[in-house]
Write a structure and sequence with these properties.
By secondary structure, the chain is an all-alpha fold. The protein is globular and about 35 Å long. The chain has five helices and no strands. It has one domain: Cytochrome c-like domain (Cytochrome Bc1 Complex, Chain D, domain 2, Orthogonal Bundle), CATH 1.10.760.10. The longest helix is centred in the N-terminal third of the chain and has 12 residues.
C-alpha cells in the first residue's frame, strides 16, 4: 500500500498546470492522428498496462483481460473502453487528460510543457514513448483480445 501511495504521489507531482502543451493536435476531445506510424502491438500494450513500474495504468485502473492481482480502483474500469471512446479519444486521455478534465490526478504521459515539480534530468521528456502510447491504445481498442 505504501508503494502505491508513493507511486501516486510521484505521478501527481508530474500533473500539469496551465494550458496543454505537446507535439500533437487536439481536436475537440481527441487527438485524431497517431503519435507514430510504427506498427502497434496490443500484446505489448497489455504488458505496459499491467506493468506497475512502467505505464502504471494498473495502479489506478482495472481491466478484465489483465491477470494481475490488486488492480486499482481509483480510476474507472477500462474493460470495453472502445465501446465508450474512439482510439483518438483514448489517445488524448493518455497523452494529456488534463486537456479533457483540468485538475485531474491522471498524469499526462506525453506532455512536456506546463508541468511542475519535474526533476531537471527529465525536463522536456515524455513519460511514455509514442509507440508505448499507441500500443496501449491498441490493447484498449481491441475488446476481443485476451493477452
Amino acid at each position: 500500500m505504501r508503494a502505491c501511495f508513493l507511486a501516486l504521489f510521484w505521478l501527481g507531482a508530474c500533473s500539469p498546470t496551465g494550458n496543454a502543451g505537446g507535439p500533437y493536435q487536439i481536436e475537440g476531445d481527441a487527438i485524431p492522428a497517431p503519435l507514430t506510424m510504427e506498427t502497434t502491438d496490443s500484446r505489448r500494450g497489455a504488458d505496459l498496462f499491467a506493468d506497475r513500474d512502467g505505464a502504471h495504468c494498473i495502479l489506478c485502473h482495472q481491466h478484465e483481460n489483465i491477470s494481475v492481482e490488486f488492480q486499482g480502483n481509483l480510476g474507472p474500469d477500462l474493460s470495453h473502453l472502445s465501446h465508450r471512446l474512439t482510439a483518438a479519444q483514448i489517445r488524448l486521455r493518455i497523452a494529456d487528460y488534463d486537456a479533457v478534465k483540468p485538475g485531474t490526478t491522471m498524469p499526462s504521459y506525453f506532455r512536456t510543457k506546463n508541468l511542475y515539480q519535474v526533476d531537471p534530468a527529465f525536463e522536456g521528456q515524455t513519460v511514455l514513448s509514442p509507440l508505448e502510447i499507441e500500443d496501449i491504445i491498441a490493447f484498449l481498442s481491441d475488446d476481443d483480445q485476451i493477452p
